[in-house]
Design goal:
This protein is mainly beta and about 450 residues long. The chain is built from 1 helix and 34 strands. The radius of gyration is 21 Å and the shape is globular.
Length: about 450
Amino acid sequence: MRPMSKVLIACFVMSAVAGSALSQDAKPERLQSWPRWRGPADTGAASGARPPLTWSEKKNVRWKIPLPGKGHSTPVIWEDRIYVTAAVPHGDAEEPARHRAPGAHDNSPKVRRQRSMVFAISRKDGSILWQREVHDGRPLEGGHVTGSFASASPVTDGDYVIASFGARGLHALNRDGKVLWSVDLGAMKTKHAHGEGSSPVLHGDTVVVNRDHEGQSFIAAFDKKTGRERWRKPRTEVTSWATPIVVEHGGKKHLIVSGTRRLRSYDLDTGDILWECGGLAHNVVASPVAGHGMVFAASSYERQAMIAIRLEGAKGDLTVSDNVAWTRRRLTPYVPSPLLYRGVLYLLHHYQAVLCRVDAKTGQESIRAQRLRDLGNIYASPVAAAGRVYVTDLQGMTVVLDHEKPGVILARNRLDDRFSASAGLVDGEIYLRGLRFLYCIAEPRVR
């Protein structure tokens, strides 16, 4: 492994210390977790968090640090640590991407070598605790101009940190940053060569990666401690970017994966299909969410589609069964995943600033779709805590809405960065990962 420049490392640490508003012995009052990209329940919500209502570059920024390279992955948090991934370009030579897919558009025509990096960062002051390079090489594809080579979010249980860089490997590290194992899953050829994005899943001692692309798609499970493959199942799917979720119901661990042809549930222990349902569209990006004994999956590319599945009694092909509780054919999300909060699904139409509130059990809208003024295109998924919903756009604006008073906007907050990554919420903090900086947004501590 090749260490990063000492000058670059020093720059990170100095910036973190300079931006800190905490003394060295300050500690969080409570230590909650946001262990994966959609939070502890895979819904986008944090039940115990109380993040600030308002902020700016001059208000409620506890610290901010520059991040190397580029990454759209969400920062995940466990107790006193934050884990983030990034792809750091190096070398002077740019070379044409080796894979030019049919229909490619808005792609980076040339690529440099990329160091795939995992960072551990202190919640206290933003200092870099460790950084590890897990892969170094030139990507096969150039990717979409808005994408990154570190778009899959890591996942942690406090002891293990699992990071996927797609064709650049699946890697497990311990709390101290030691690389425990790495698995080469082979090259991927994504639709339009737009890149990879599905995040790994960690449930108990099982790690799962979904690999839908234009080659032979598959889903595979690995032992968390050793990296040994437990099972692998082929998938009759084309490229998707959605992250699976695990739902325990009826004595089974349902591994639920959205896909173009089918929404499927696999038995986490064996990889056997428990049930499946048609109805989504091509280019599935949004991940499913689950709650109230139901699963909700959406897509919006060449057509809009959303399906709600009752888990009780779900078995086999559910496409025309009573297990389909409701469907939706308008104003469904494409890039941002749904937020499920207190019985309400929040949906952003396509990747635009049009927000819908839908009753999770019935599929009915509680109010008319709301255009969120001052927001542009949105790639980050909405999050919620403390009776508030937070929506962040690409240009650095976050709108905060009142969950109890539908349609009421409580605050508009702008930062000087661009945001594609979804936020992480813990305790009194919200972590926003931008193109250039990682922000810890929090109100000043009472001394």
